[in-house]
Design a protein that fits this description.
This protein is an alpha/beta fold. Strands 1, 2, 3, 4, 5, 6, 7, 8 and 9 form a nine-stranded mixed beta sheet that branches.
């Protein structure tokens, strides 16, 4: 099996040594490696060039998004290698693992209706903070047929081009949105039981986790706005769940306590009860606590998206690093 048909597109912004690890792990595993930089000020483009990687620096006059960066990387990849059949997308804070490229390409060739294949993403330092550990849990998704992928995945070029790539205006959730369009067109997504990348979230503060979770809520709302109609119902449940637990329940209980009966405040016990239910199912009180707490920043993300939409304002990148 020749690897000359696989290209790698790496995107990043001020990733420093993490980018160095990412690029070094990529070189030699694909015919062409392209790095797309979104306005770094830490010398990332120079580092990539020193490693012999082709560099695209995005025009700073337009808003940066990961979707825009990946599309730009693919355009450069197509120019450099017109025979490329598959593209492996990597975030600059990730390190490619083992023979992932070979295993993913082999699986894609065996299944011609597969548009996307992904593997296991692990957090590099899950023990450094609860927030890193939450990321590691989040990425432990079921093996087999999937509905979407994350930012690190291998895609079939023909399917990617048929969809005209990622929707560049999305500030988050661009990969699941593309997967919705791919599935509508009859393509499939699959997760292999194979190590794909090590990710370095570098989240050590509650404020970082909070902003990242606000971004998730924003993605839920925009995804539901775009593809919430049947049969996909993309992220409709997640959006309503965030609104219900993040604002509807607490406001309704407080109004009932003020206007009807103070004992109505006891209804707020729904939150610790939900934590207990999740803890029993997941086997972790810590994970359960943060899953319930997440409904509040997710709710704020939903509200932020619709507030900006109603004002006709564009979305603004939500960064947590």
């Amino acid at each position: 099996m020749s690897r000359s048909r696989v290209g790698i597109v790496v995107i990043g912004r001020n990733e420093g040594e993490r980018l160095g690890r990412c690029l070094r792990s990529s070189i030699g595993h694909a015919s062409t490696v392209v790095y797309v930089d979104s306005g770094s000020v830490d010398g990332s483009p120079r580092l990539a060039r020193e490693l012999g990687v082709d560099v695209v620096q995005l025009d700073m006059s337009r808003p940066f998004t990961a979707a825009r960066a990946r599309n730009a990387g693919c355009r450069r990849l197509f120019k450099l290698d017109r025979d490329v059949e598959f593209v492996q997308f990597l975030d600059g804070d990730c390190e490619l693992q083992g023979d992932w490229i070979g295993a993913a390409e082999k699986f894609m060739r065996r299944h011609p209706r597969l548009a996307v294949v992904c593997g296991r993403t692990r957090e590099r330092h899950p023990d450094r903070s609860v927030f890193n550990q939450l990321c590691d849990w989040e990425w432990d998704t079921p093996v087999g047929e999937a509905t979407s992928c994350g930012g690190n995945a291998m895609m079939r070029i023909s399917a990617f081009r048929a969809m005209r790539g990622f929707r560049e205006t999305l500030i988050a959730g661009e990969e699941p949105e593309l997967c919705v369009r791919l599935r509508k067109a009859g393509w499939r997504i699959h997760r292999l039981d194979a190590e794909m990348v090590l990710h370095d979230a570098a989240m050590t503060r509650l404020a970082q986790w909070w902003r990242r979770t606000v971004r998730s809520g924003h993605a839920y709302a925009e995804g539901a706005w775009l593809h919430g109609a049947p049969p996909m119902r993309h992220w409709v449940r997640e959006t309503w769940r965030a609104l219900a637990f993040g604002i509807v329940v607490p406001v309704a209980v407080l109004l009932a306590a003020l206007l009807v009966e103070p004992l109505a405040l006891l209804l707020l016990a729904i939150y610790p009860l939900q934590i207990a239910r999740l803890a029993l199912r997941l086997g972790s009180w810590r994970r359960a606590f943060f899953l319930v707490l997440a409904r509040f920043p997710e709710c704020w993300g939903v509200i932020t998206f619709h507030a900006r939409r109603l004002r006709g304002a564009g979305s603004v990148l939500i960064e947590y690093k």
